[in-house]
Amino acid sequence: MNLVRVWPALVFACLLWGGASSLAAQPGEPPINPVPSNPSPANSAEKYLSRPVAAVLFVPPDQPLPRDELSRLVAVQAGRPLAASDVRETIARLFATGRYLDIQADAQNSNRGVVIRFLTRNRWFIGSVDITGRVSSPPNAAQLENAAQLDLGQPFTEEKMNAAIAGQRRLLESNGLYRPQIRPVYEYDNAHQQMNFHFDVTSGPRARFTTPVLSGDLQMDPRRIVDATGWRRWLFHNWKKVTQARVRDGLDAVRNLYEKENRLEARISLVSLDYDPETQTALPRLNIEAGPRIQVRTIGADVSQKNLRRLVPVFQEHTVDQDLLAEGARNLRDYLESRGYFDAQVEFKQQRVTNDRASLDFLVNTGPRHRLAHIQISGNHYFTAQAIRERMLLEPASLLLFRHGRYSESLLHRDEDSITKLYQSNGFRDVKVRDRIEDGYKGVPSDLAVYIDIDEGPQYLVNSLQVDGVTQLDKAALVGRLSSVTGQPFSESNVAVDRDTILAEYFRNGYPNATFEWSSEPAAQPHRVNLRYVIAEGRHETIRDVLVSGLGVTRRKLVEETVKLAPGDPLSPTAITDAQRRLYDLGIFERVDAAIQNPDGDTPSKYVLYDLEGAGRYTMAAGAGAEIARIGGCQTCLDAPAGATGFAPRVSFDITRNNLWGLAHSLSLRTRASTLEEQALLNYTWPRFLDNDKLAVSFVGLYEDSRDVRTFSYKREEGSAQLSQKLSKATTLLYRYSYRHVSIDQATLKISPLLIPLLSQPVRVGMLSATLVDDRRDDPLDPHRGMYTTVDFGLADYVFGSQPNYFRFLARNSTYHHLSRRFILARSTEFGDISPFHYSGSAVDAIPLAERFFAGGASSNRGFPDFQAGPRDTSTGFPLGGNAVFFNQTELRFPLLGDNVGGVLFHDAGNVYSQVTNMSLRTNQHDIADFNYMVHAVGFGLRYRTPVGPVRLDLAYSINPPRFFGFSGSEQDLVNAGPNPCQDQPSRCAVTGVSHFQFFFSIGQTF
User: Fold this and answer.
1) DSSP helix, strand, coil percent of the chain (3-state; round to 5)
2) Is 907 helix (H, G, I), strand (E, B) or coil?
C-alpha cells in the first residue's frame, strides 16, 4: 500500500479534541479493498484524479465535530469522480471551523475506486488558569493569572505559553522577587479540546532596596531625594523590601519634591533596578533632569495658587507643553466666567529661562463682572420651555447655588447643540437655534439676559415602514418594538435606536452575524418619508454545551441551575452575560469569567465557558459609630423624661461563613454593643429554596439586652423563620413566624409602681406575619423619583404559642416627585394599629409594654426625641408607647452649595396614640394627661453627599409639644411616694414637657 498526498499539507495552529467521524461506503455495498500501486512521484497525484471516490475516511476516527456537521463540510462525495477542487474546498471548510491545527489528505486505490483519507491534528483551547504554590504577596494569585494573558476560550499556542511565563516573571521581578520558580502543569480535556493550566509558583525571597544611584542634573541635595523615596525606614535606617507599589510611590514622591521646588519640567525615570543575588538587594538607578524653576502666575486677575494648581494641568502632568498651557487658559477662562466675568479673555506667555528660573504668565482681561439674570426661550411649540431648560447647563443667578449664574460661551454653544439634537431626534430636521445676549437687563448694567430663539421648521414623519429579511423571528412582534413606525417622527437617531433594538433581538436569539441596513425616500406627501429596513439574518448559532471550571467546593448542580443554559439554546451574548450576573449574585464567587470557545470559528454550535473563582469562606467586618441626639437622661434617676442631649458610642463585629456545603448557604453572626444596647444575631440563609431562584429561607436567632434610659430596660430572646419570595424586580413578599420572650427589668421601670405587675411581667409572643415590600425608587440611598411601600400584617395567637392575642398592622408609603429640575418633593406616610382580642380589661392595657409602638425622632416625627412620642406615665412623664401610630413627613429637597451640599425644608406631623379609636387630627392638648393629638414640627436640614449616602443634620422646631407631670427624685423616692405620688408629694411633681427644639445627626436620607 502506497500513501500518496493529493494536496500539499496545510499547517495551521489548532488543538486536539475527541469525537468520532468517518465517511465510508454505503450500507449493502461490497467492502473496499485497497490495491497496492507504485506510481512515480511525478504523476502519482494525477493518477487518482477523475476516478470515482469509493470512500472518505478521517484519521483519527474521533473528530471534534459532530457527524452531521462533518458531512456538511466534506465536498468530496463517495461515487463521484475525485476532483482536486473538492479536496481543497473540504480542507478550507475544515480549517474555517477553527478546530484543526493541521489537515492532510492522501489517496489509496481500491477495487471500487479511490479511498480518500483526511489526516487531522486538532487544536487546543485555553480553559481555566490558576496559581498554586508558595507565593509571597504582592503580587497575589489573581495578578499572576492576569499577567499570564491566557484568555478563556482562545486558541492555545506555545508562543502564548512562553509569553505567559515571561509576563509572570516580569511581574514577580517588579515586586522584588528575582528568583522565582514557575512550573506550568497542563490538564487536558480531550472531549472538549480544552487545556486547563496550573502554574506552580514559588516566588522565593524578596529583595531589599539599597542606596539609589542618581544621575543627571539633580539641582538638589541627593540625601533629600533618597529620603523622599521612602525606601528606607526613617527610624532604623534599614531598607524596605521591594514592591511594585513602593517603586511607583517613591518615584511619585521625588516628582512631588521637585514640584514643591517649582521645577515643573523635572524628568524622573527609573533606568534600572539591578539585582545582586549575593546581598539579596536591588539597586535603583534614577536619572533626574531637574529643569528650571518655573513660576506660574496670573497677571490681571487674582487667582490663588491652590486654584492655579487645580486649573492648570502642568502640575498634574508634571510637564510643560503648548497643549497643556492652552487647556489651562481655557480652564482659567471657565473659572472666571463661573465667577461672573463672562467676557474674560486669557492668554499665556512662556518666559525664557534666566539663571535657572522661568515663568509661565497667564495674561487675564477679566472685563466687567456680570450676573446672568434671565434666560428666555421663544419659538418653541413642540416642547415646553421647562423641558428644554432641563437639558441646558446655563443657569440664572440664585441666592445660594449660583450667585452670578452659570454662563460661558462654550456652555451656550453646548446648550444650543443639545436643543438642536433634541428637535432633530423628534423629526425637526431643519431646526435652527439662535441666541441673543442682552447687556443691562432691566436697566441694571451688570445684569445679562440670554434669549434663545428656536425656528422649529416642519416636522418630518414616517409615512411607511418596510422591513425586509425577517424570516426566523416574529416579524410583527419585532416591528411593534420599533420607534420609526408610521406616523412617528423621522430622525436618524430613531433609526439608530431601531437598529440597536433589532440587532439586540437577533443576538439574543443566536444570530450573532445579523446585519442591518436602511434607506429612505421622500413620500408623495410633503415632509413625509418612506423608510425601509433590510436585515440579513446570517446563520443561526446554538450552544453545543456549557463547560464550567473552577467550582472548588461549590456543587455543579447549583451552578447549572443558576446558569440556565442548555445544549441547543441560542448562542446569545445577552443570555451568557445574564448567567454571569446571576452567578455573581449568589455571593459565593470572587470572579466569574464567561467566554465562547473558538469564538472566530465557523461552526453552527459552540461551547460556552464559565471559569469560576470562589470567594473567601469567611468574611469579617468591624465598625464603630456614635449617636448624638436627645437620647435620654440617667438610668438610675427620673430626670429628663423627655430626653436630654446624650452621646452613645457603639461598636460592631460581624463574621459570616459563606457557601456552606457548596450550596451558597451562609451562617452569620452579627454583634452590636453600645451604652444603650447589646445585641447578637445569628442568621442562617438558604437561597434558591426548592431550586427556585425567587425563593429564599432564613432562620434567625436574636438576643438583645436594651438599656433604654427613658422608660425601661429589657431582655429579648427571639427565634424566627422566614420565607422570601421575589415577585418581580421591585416587589418582594416575606412570610415569617417568630417566637420571642421579652422580660423587663423592674428595677429600671420608670413608671408608677402600681403598673409594674401589669406591664413588666415577662411575656411570650408567637406571631405569624407577612410583609410586602415594593421598591420603585431610582436610588435607595438618595432617591429622587419613584415610590417605596411596605405593608406588614401580624397575628399573635395562643395557637402560635403567644400569651397576648392581637392583630398587628403597619404600613408605610413614600413618594418622590420632581417639582423642577433641582427641587424634589418627598413625602412619607406611616400608619399602624395593634388590635387585641380575647382579653379582659381595657384594650390599652391588653398589650404588654415591650410590644407597643414606640416612635418619634429622626425617622418619624422630628418634633420628638427618639421614641418619645405618645402616651406617658401620668406621674413620672416617661413614655408608655401606644397601640396606634400615624405619621406624615414632607420634605422639599434642593441644592444649596454646589453639587454636594443640599438643603431640606421639612414638616412632620403625627403621634403615637393609645389606641386607634383615640386617633385625632386636632393640634391642641386638652390637659397634661392628654396625649392623643397630632404634634407638628417644622425645620431645616443639611445634606452632604458621600459615596455611602448623604450625611444629614436636621434642626427641628416642635410647634405644639406635649406637656406632662414629671416626678423628680430617684426610683426609690417614687416607690416610697405611694400610689398617688403627685398628690401625696406635690412638691416633687412639676409640669414639664418636650423641648421645642430638637436636632438629629446621622447618615442617609430621612426616608
Assistant:
1) 20, 40, 40
2) strand
Residues 51 and 180 in one domain: no
Asked which of 614, 630, 659 is the last residue of a domain, the reply is 614
- In a shared domain, residues 11 and 92: yes
The yes-or-no verdict on residue 252 having pLDDT over 50 is yes
**CB-count burial class (<10 Å; 0-12, 13-18, 19+) for 499:** middle
Whether residue 711 lies inside any domain: the answer is: no
Q: Choose among 70, 45, 42: nearest CA to 56.
A: 70
Asked which of 180-194, 392-406, 435-449, 497-511 is least confident by mean pLDDT, the reply is 392-406
The residue segments making up the domain with residue 276 are: 216-289
The gap from C-alpha 571 to its chain's centroid, in whole angstroms, comes to: 26
As a residue count, the chain comes to 1007
CATH number for the domain spanning 607: value is 3.10.20.310
The answer to whether residues 276 and 332 belong to one domain is no
Among candidates 999, 987, 970, 831, which has minimal Cα distance to 913? 831
> Residue-wise over 927-955: b if at least 16 C-beta within 10 A, else e?
ebebbbbbbbbbbebbbeeeeebbebebe
**DSSP-derived secondary structure for 696-763:** EEEEEEEEEEE--SSS-EEEEEEEEEEEEEE-SSSEEEEEEEEEEEEEEEGGG--S-GGGHHHHSS-E
Of 536, 562, 595, which residue constitutes the final position of a domain?
536
Tens-digit pLDDT profile for residues 740-778 = 998 876 555 555 545 444 455 788 999 999 999 999 998
| 986 shares a domain with 840 | yes
Q: Which residues contact 921 (CB under 8 A, 6 or more apart)?
A: 934
CB-CB contact of 448 with 370 (8 Å): yes
- pTM: predicted TM-score of the whole model, two decimal places: 0.81
- Residue type for position 900: N
**What is d(CA 689, CA 725) in angstroms, rounded to the nearest whole number?**
10
For the domain that residue 328 is a member of, what is the CATH number?
3.10.20
Q: Residue 930 contacts by C-beta under 8 Å, 6 or more apart in sequence? A: none
What pLDDT does 839 receive? Answer: 84
- Nearest CA to 544 among 58, 123, 66? 66
Count: domains in the chain: 8
Closest CA to 671 of 693, 692, 656, 687: 656
Give the chain's radius of gyration (CA, Å).
39
Q: Does 788 share its domain with 919? A: yes
Domain assignment present for 417: yes
